[in-house]
Amino acid sequence: MVQTVQKQRVFAFDELRGVMILSMLVYHICYDLAELVRLKGMNWFYSEAAGWWQLSICGAFILVSGACCAYSGNNLKRGLKLLGLGMFFTLVTVLVLPQQRILFGLLHFLGTTVLLSIPLKPLLERISPWAGLAGGLFLFWLTYSLPSGRIGLSRTLSLELPPVLYSTSFLFLLGFPDSNFSPPIISALPYLFLFLAGMFFGKTAAAAGVLPAAQQIAFPAGEKQSVGLPAASAGDLCRPVADFPILKMKKRLHNCADALGF
To answer: How many other CB atoms sit within 10 Å of the CB of residue 104?
Structure first.
């Protein structure tokens, strides 16, 4: 017996998250080969291009996570789940790979910012979505080099920050790591601005009706259904299951994203 239900999901978010999960898996395989195995020929992993690759993964997750705050029905549960997963990985890396321990990684950051979005929501709703989107992206780019000791739009149009900000290990979460700090972190600055830009992007895209509509997905009777996201707009049309030739792959990606709490 097949029970057909209308799943309220924005598939553009799910598909982007699925692609980024695959990209993240490949990136971490390359990381292990370069850092742990020390495989010859992996010098390219330390190039600027690899740095942009890493940014594309983190940036996409942060943007989508921010956008989903406007759609999620329970940001408290979602934030606690992400933060709990992050703490689990912290425990595992401290016990198994103490030299590569993750003190505050992507999951920690997403969980913390999703929780922060709850009390900040009334304040952010006073800001125009377009202005918030543009301002968030601008401030992200302006502070992107903050962990490297400068602030500005480029290497030539930048201002060196006082070294005293980077002389203590207590400010690393804000974006001021000291010279002895090596574990990977996702600091509050500049990535908080990217998350906020994602929140405003979700509102902007929904208001403009540019996001895909809610989709109808058929589930076998009794199968556990994941919690979905509301449609981009109430007037959007729904496409039936037959219109998705790669539905099985999409469904796996959706379930993977739901399991991670994104």
So the answer is: 18
- Average pLDDT rounded to a whole number, residues 147-159: 86
Residue 232 in tokens: 């981009």
Q: Is the per-residue pLDDT at 128 higher than 80?
A: yes
Separation of alpha carbons 59 and 55, rounded Å: 6
Which has the closest alpha carbon to 110: 53, 59, 177, 147? Answer: 59
* Contacts of 30 by beta carbon, 8 Å cutoff, 6+ apart: 42, 45, 50
H helix and E strand count, the chain: 7, 4
For residues 70 and 130, what is the distance between their CA atoms, to the nearest angstrom? 15
Taking only the tens place, the pLDDT of each residue in 184-210 is 678 888 999 999 999 999 888 766 666
In angstroms, the CA 111 to CA 97 distance is 23
**Are 33 and 42 a contacting pair, CB within 8 Å?**
yes
Q: How far apart are CA 112 and CA 62, in angstroms?
A: 12
Specify the residue for token string 């707009």: 233
What's the CA gap between 36 and 31, in Å, rounded? 8
Supply the pLDDT for residue 229: 36
d(CA 79, CA 72): 11
User: Can you tell me the mean pLDDT for 222-239?
Assistant: 37
Q: For the segment 155-185, what is each residue's pLDDT rounded down to a tens digit?
A: 888 899 888 888 877 787 888 887 666 556 7
Comparison of pLDDT for 28 and 260, the residue scoring more: 28
Exposure pattern of 52-90 as b/e (b: 16+ CB <10 Å)?
eeeeebbbbbbbbbbbbbbbbeebeebbebbbebbeeeb
Distance of alpha carbon 71 from alpha carbon 64, whole angstroms = 11
